[in-house]
Amino acid sequence: xxxxxxxxxxxxxxxxxxxxxxxxxxxxxxxxxxxxxxxxxxxxxxxxxxxxxxxxxxxxxxxxxxxxxxxxxxxxxxxxxxxxxxxxxxxxxxxxxxxxxxxxxxxxxxxxxxxxxxxxxxxxxxxxxxxxxxxxxxxxxxxxxxxxxxxxxxxxxxxxxxxxxxxxxxxxxxxxxxxxxxxxxxxxxxxxxxxxxxxxxxxxxxxxxxxxxxxxxxxxxxxxxxxxxxxxxxxxxxxxxxxxxxxxx
Amino acid sequence: xxxxxxxxxxxxxxxxxxxxxxxxxxxxxxxxxxxxxxxxxxxxxxxxxxxxxxxxxxxxxxxxxxxxxxxxxxxxxxxxxxxxxxxxxxxxxxxxxxxxxxxxxxxxxxxxxxxxxxxxxxxxxxxxxxxxxxxxxxxxxxxxxxxxxxxxxxxxxxxxxxxxxxxxxxxxxxxxxxxxxxxxxxxxxxxxxxxxxxxxxxxxxxxxxxxxxxxxxxxxxxxxxxxxxxxxxxxxxxxxx
Lengths: 249, 241
Ligand SMILES: Nc1ncnc2c1ncn2[C@@H]1O[C@H](COP(=O)(O)OP(=O)(O)OP(=O)(O)O)[C@@H](O)[C@H]1O
Ligand SMILES: [Mg+2]
Fold this sequence. Notes:
The structure holds 2 protein chains of 2 kinds.
Chain A: H1 2-11, H2 14-23, H3 25-57, H4 62-76, H5 80-94, H6 96-109, H7 116-143, H8 147-155, H9 160-190, H10 202-213, H11 216-247
Chain B: E1 2-11, E2 14-24, E3 29-33, H1 40-47, E4 55-60, E5 63-64, H2 72-76, E6 79-82, H3 94-104, H4 110-123, H5 139-151, E7 157-161, H6 169-183, E8 188-192, H7 196-202, E9 205-210, E10 213-218, H8 220-226, H9 230-240
Parallel strand pairs in B: 3-8, 3-9, 6-7, 7-8
Antiparallel strand pairs in B: 1-2, 1-4, 4-5, 9-10
Helix pairs in contact in B: 3-4, 3-5, 4-5, 5-6
The complex binds adenosine-5'-triphosphate (ATP) and magnesium ion.
């Protein structure tokens, strides 16, 4: 017991922290920026895909339902890691044109990054993967709203899209928000797959700093806090939106 | 104003409407009566295409709604429907329930929609509830708001599908009074109801439907005093007791 405490104290001793702040923080911040960027891009993509596919899969349009089923089942039932590895390393070989397109997109959007292409692959990977889960949450949310709501709005001359936008989705949001937050937070954490394809995200930067400084305590605690700093506001935002939706119910 | 010609509707193998023919001139108040499951809701929902018939012709306000690419949403703007279960928008206030569709569908300005909306709320006796949410109102009040919502579209046709069936008995009259008031105006109305008193008082015409067939169609006096069909007589004997 005493030994454990002593080694813990040593692990987090002031000079260990000083070593991190003097020689490692810059690299951790660089990793934070990459992870933050990937998380934002992934979230936007996942939300867009999730809403579009979720609305389509709740519609009466058979073809759209079939396509969304295929999308959801494929991406929910294969490992994210494999999807990202494929996008990063497989796609340029299997489909060179798509690879070139993404490369060009990367140099246009992320000129500051020398692994821009792989980052795009990672963003696409987490976005598409979590989009599949969000789409299921959106579908369940829409189907939880009584058919009378859609009928009332259609009977007033609204288009299907207008009915969704003004009537069904705002109500479905209350049901969708908790699983949506869950997905958003998981998405942020899952951007760490970037590490496997060699992008210096927060995770890989942490590992690199630790290798150089041999200072696991402060390094990984800081990495952890940085992930927390990205995820916790999402949880707070969702709580706030949920409360607001509750008031209007 | 409304013309149904040889309208047929199937749900799977269930033949719900059988060669329905119904012409309703402008301004007429039609009450549709019939046993449960006879096809009343399906019939009235064919008028605004919430149900699409399998065959036949539906012409509303001069527009053939069965034609490919028919402007159904456009026609629905002038065919307002009041539902048995109210179907108010629970996330909107009473006044927002009235103004949403006029604003986003008809392009009416917010001020104008609110002015006319308040006038209609006045008319149904609920002006002071304008900033409440539907869940804060009683069933009868909700249905009166639903009627005001329908009116705020300035429709040419009003469709009611059993507007009082989901209400506690003591609230039925307040809703019927509003509908009877409307019947005194020029608007075309189709009302599915079991309220025989309303049919006698407000209808120009009673249509009796059973198993998807129109069995009686005529003025209320004819229907209540002179019904020809055995099934109609049976139905009346049950309902009038
Ligand atoms: N969406 C649907 N899918 C399948 N069957 C339906 C559907 N809507 C109605 N039906 C069937 O069609 C028949 C007529 O139903 P409808 O609702 O028109 O009757 P109704 O006269 O309005 O009855 P009620 O007085 O109970 O409201 C019933 O047998 C009903 O089960
Ligand atoms: Mg019915």
